[in-house]
Amino acid sequence: MSDKQTITEKIFSRAAERPVKAGDFVLANIDRAMTHDITGPLAVEGFYEIMRNEKEKKVWDPDKIVILFDHQVPADSLNAAQNHIMLRKFVAEQDIKNFYDIFEGVCHQVMPEKGHVLPGQLVVGSDSHTCAYGSLGAFATGIGSTDMAAVFAIGKLWFRVPETIRFEVNGRLGERVYSKDIILKLIGDIGADGARYKACEYAGDAVKSLDVSQRMTISNMAIEMGGKAGIIEPDSITEEYIKERVPGYKLDTDLKSDDGANYSDIRKYDVSDMPPQVACPHNVDNVVDVTEVEGKKIDQVLLGSCTNGRFEDLKIAADIMGDRPVAKGVRLLVIPASRTEYMKALKAGLVEQFMNAGALVESPCCGPCMGGSFGLLGPGEVCIATSNRNFKGRQGSADAFVYLSSPATAAASAIKGKITDPRSV
Amino acid sequence: MGKTLAEKILSEKSGTEAIPGDIVTVPVDFVFSHDGTMPLAIQQMEKELGTRKVFDPLKVGGICDHASPSPSEQVSNVQIFMRKFARENNMPYFFENGDGICHQIVAEKFSAPGKIIIGGDSHTCTHGALAAFGTGMGSTDVGAIMAYGTTWLRVPESFKFQIDGELPEHVTSKDVFLHIVKEITADGATYMSMEFTGSTVKNMTVDSRLVMSNMAIEAGGKVGLCSSDEKVRQFLAKHGRENEYKELSADKDAVYKDELHIDASKLVPYIAYPHRVDNVKPVTDFAGMELQQVCIGSCTNGRLEDLKVAAEILKGKKVHKDTRLVVYAASRGVMMEAMKAGYIQTLIEAGAAVCPPGCGFCIGRTVALGDGEKVLSTQNRNFKGRMGNNKSEIYLSNVPVAAVSAIYGKVTDPREVL
C-alpha cells in the first residue's frame, strides 16, 4: 500500500489526527460549520435536543460557526420571519460572531468572501452546494440538519473518506465559453449519479487558468454529479484570494495530491473546441451544445445564484448585452450573490446598465433558484438560468421549464428572447 | 358661486355645474390596476359585461408591483393572466416586476392637472398632488371602466386644509398629514375632497405633496388635492409631459364643508402607533423603543427626495446590528436617479437591503415580520397584520426619523442627534 495521498486523504488525515485513506471511517474535527435560514432552525432544534440533559447548553466553539440568512431575505413570509427570529436568538445565546443577517448575500459567496474558508480545512454546511468551497482547496461538503446539530454539540462528525475522481481538463476555452460550460459538460458525460460520494478533483491547465470566481462555479456543481466534494488544488491564484482576506496568509505547498496518489477514475478532457453548453429540463445531466436548443422561446432569465452571481459573471453578461434592451416579453432577473458583489457591480455601472435594459435587480439572495422566494415561474413558462439546478418545480411551477447555462448564454438569450448562442451576438 | 378644486375638475369633465351631492358621469383619462386587484377586474369584465376588450388600450394600465418579483406560484399565475390580457388588448402600458409601484409610475407617466385617474388601489388619491382627480375603486368598478371608459361619481364635499408657516428641520409633509389625521381621525374626511393649500404647501416639492395626497384615504378622503403651479409644471417637464400642464386652483370664494388651519412651524416629527393611522403622538413619546426592522420606501415615501434624505443621514454610518433596514425605491426611474446620485451605494454601505422597486414590505406580500417584532416604516398604513403578521407592531414615521432610528436601533428623534 503506497503512502501517496490525494488532497482529500491529506485533509482527512489532519482532521482525524491519523493517517487515513479512501474507504476509512473517521471521526473528524470540523474547522468550520455553516448554516442558513432554511436548514438552521432544524439544526438548532436538534442541538438543544442533544443537549437536553446538559446544564451548559453551549456549542462546541462559537467562533467556528457561521450563520447567514439568504434563502428567504428579506423575510418573504411569516414562516421565514419566525425562522429568522429563532436563529437570531440562537446567535445571541451562543455568542456567535460570524452572523450575517438579511443583507449580506448567499452563503456560498459570503463564506469565502469573508475569509471563513481556508485551503486544507474541513468545512461542513447544511446546504448541498457547500462543495463550492472546494474551489479554495478546502474539503467542503453539505450535511443534513441532524448532523449539523451534532457538529454544533461536539465539533466532530464521522465520514467515510471518499475515493477521488480526477478530472483533467486541458485546452484553451473558446471565446464566450466559460467554466460553467466545462462543468455542464462534465456532468452531462458522467451523469447525475456518476460521481456519487466521490471527491471530484478538478485539474489540468484549463482549470488552473481560471480565476477564483470561475473555479467556484465548477466546485459548486460537484453535487450535481453526486460528488461529496469538488476540490481544486490551491495555488498562487488561491493564495492571492485568501491573502486579501487573511493578511499574511501563506499557502502550505504540500496541500496537493501526491504524484501516484490513488484515484478511482481519471477522466481527461480537451475543451479547446467545446461550444457553450446548456442543461435542459428537468435534469442537470441533460446537457447539449447550445446549438441544439437555439431558438427556444423564453419568458424569464435568471442571472445570479451561488453558481454564477459574482461580479465577473455580471460583467460577462453586461458586456454581451451592451446597450441592447431585454427582449420584449422577457423578464431578466439579476441577483448578485452578495452585497460585496452588488457594490462592485454598482460602482462599475453594471446595475444601472441592467436596469436601463429593463432588468429587475434584486437585493442579494437565493431568489427563485430554490423555489422559495422571489421571481417564481408559472405553468408553461420557460426560464434560462445561471443557477445549478433545473429539477421539475425547482423555480416555482412543476409545469415550468428551466434551462441552465453560463451568464454569457443567459445574457445573449435575454436580448434575443430565445435561447441564443452567445458567440452569435 | 366659487368652486373647490374637486368641483372644478368634475364640472369640466362632466359638462355640468357639479355641486356636492350631484351624481355626475365623467370620462376617465387613465385607469389602472395591479397584481393584487387586476385579475378580479378582468374577471368582472368577462362575467358581468361579457367582454375582455378594453375601451382604449392607451388609457388602461396594468402593473406588477404588489408581489414583485413573484413570491409564489399563485402570484406567478396571476401575473401570467394579466400579461395575456394586456397582450390581447395590445396595451402598451403594462409594467413588469421591477418597474415600480403603480402610483409612482402613474404619477410619472400619466397624471396631470384636471385629469380623472382611477386605480384599483385605495391610494390612487396620490395623484391629487398633481391636481388630478385620482381615486381608488373596487375591482368591479375598475372592470367596468376598463370596458367603457367612463364612471359615475358623487361630487364630494370639500375639506380645506390651510397650512402656513415654515416646517421645522426634520419635520416633513408626512408629519403634516399625521398631524391632520390625528386632529380629524381616520373617518374625519369620509368621502370628502381634502384640499391642501397655504404657503407651506406652496413651498413643498411635488415629492412632498405626493405624500399628503397619498395618505388622504387614511382620513377617509375621496381625493387629496393640491393646486397646480410651476413645480407641477417642472415635474411634468422632467417626465416629458410639459404640454399636459395647466393652471388649476380653487376659486377664492369656494365653499368648504370644513376647514382646518395648521401652523406648520409648530409641528414636530410624529409617529402613528399600532394599529391605526390616527393613533398619532410626537416621536418623543416613543424615543428609545427598540426596533427590529426599519423600512424606507413605498408609494408614500419612496421617492428621490426620500432616498436622498435617508442617504444623507446614513452616510458613513452603520445600521444598528440588531435592526434590519429595508429600502425600496418607488420606481425604476427613482432607483436609477438615486443610483446616479450615489444614494443607493451609500445605503448599501450602511447595511441596508435595497430591494427592486415595488410595494415590497408595505403590504406584507413579499416581506414579512415575525411575532412580536416592532417595525418603523415610512409607509401609509399600520393596520394589524398589514406587514404579514398580526402579532407584530407597525409604527409610521417620516424618513428622517426612520433613517436615524435605523442607526440607533430604536426610535430616535432626529432633532436630538443630527
UniProtKB/TrEMBL annotation, chain A:
It catalyses: (2R,3S)-3-isopropylmalate = (2S)-2-isopropylmalate. Keywords: 4Fe-4S, Amino-acid biosynthesis, Branched-chain amino acid biosynthesis, Iron, Iron-sulfur, Leucine biosynthesis, Lyase, Metal-binding. Residues 10-417 form the Aconitase/3-isopropylmalate dehydratase large subunit alpha/beta/alpha domain. [4Fe-4S] cluster binds at C306, C366, C369. Binds 1 [4Fe-4S] cluster per subunit. SUPFAM superfamilies: Aconitase iron-sulfur domain. Pathway: Amino-acid biosynthesis; L-leucine biosynthesis; L-leucine from 3-methyl-2-oxobutanoate: step 2/4. Its EC number is 4.2.1.33. Its cofactor is [4Fe-4S] cluster. It holds the Pfam family Aconitase. Belongs to the aconitase/IPM isomerase family. LeuC type 2 subfamily. PANTHER family: HOMOACONITASE, MITOCHONDRIAL-RELATED, ISOPROPYLMALATE_CITRAMALATE ISOMERASE LARGE SUBUNIT. Heterodimer of LeuC and LeuD. This is 3-isopropylmalate dehydratase large subunit. The lineage of its organism: Archaea, Methanobacteriati, Methanobacteriota, Stenosarchaea group, Methanomicrobia.
TrEMBL record, chain B:
It catalyses: (2R,3S)-3-isopropylmalate = (2S)-2-isopropylmalate. Its cofactor is [4Fe-4S] cluster. It comes from the Archaea. Keywords: 4Fe-4S, Amino-acid biosynthesis, Branched-chain amino acid biosynthesis, Iron, Iron-sulfur, Leucine biosynthesis, Lyase, Metal-binding. CDD domains: IPMI. It is an enzyme of class 4 (lyase). GO terms for molecular function: 3-isopropylmalate dehydratase activity; 4 iron, 4 sulfur cluster binding; metal ion binding. Gene3D superfamilies: Aconitase, domain 3. [4Fe-4S] cluster binds at C299, C359, C362. Residues 8-409 form the Aconitase/3-isopropylmalate dehydratase large subunit alpha/beta/alpha domain. Pathway: Amino-acid biosynthesis; L-leucine biosynthesis; L-leucine from 3-methyl-2-oxobutanoate: step 2/4. Binds 1 [4Fe-4S] cluster per subunit. GO terms for biological process: L-leucine biosynthetic process. It holds the Pfam family Aconitase. Its EC number is 4.2.1.33. InterPro entries: Acnase/IPM_dHydase_lsu_aba_1/3 (IPR015931), Acoase/IPM_deHydtase_lsu_aba (IPR001030), Aconitase_4Fe-4S_BS (IPR018136), Aconitase_4Fe-4S_dom (IPR036008), HAcnase/IPMdehydase_lsu_prok (IPR011826), Homoacnase/IPMdehydase_lsu (IPR006251), IPM_dehydratase_rel_enz (IPR050067), IPMI_cat (IPR033941). Signal peptide: none annotated. Belongs to the aconitase/IPM isomerase family. LeuC type 2 subfamily. Heterodimer of LeuC and LeuD. Catalyzes the isomerization between 2-isopropylmalate and 3-isopropylmalate, via the formation of 2-isopropylmaleate. This is 3-isopropylmalate dehydratase large subunit. The lineage of its organism: Archaea, Methanobacteriati, Methanobacteriota, Stenosarchaea group, Methanomicrobia.
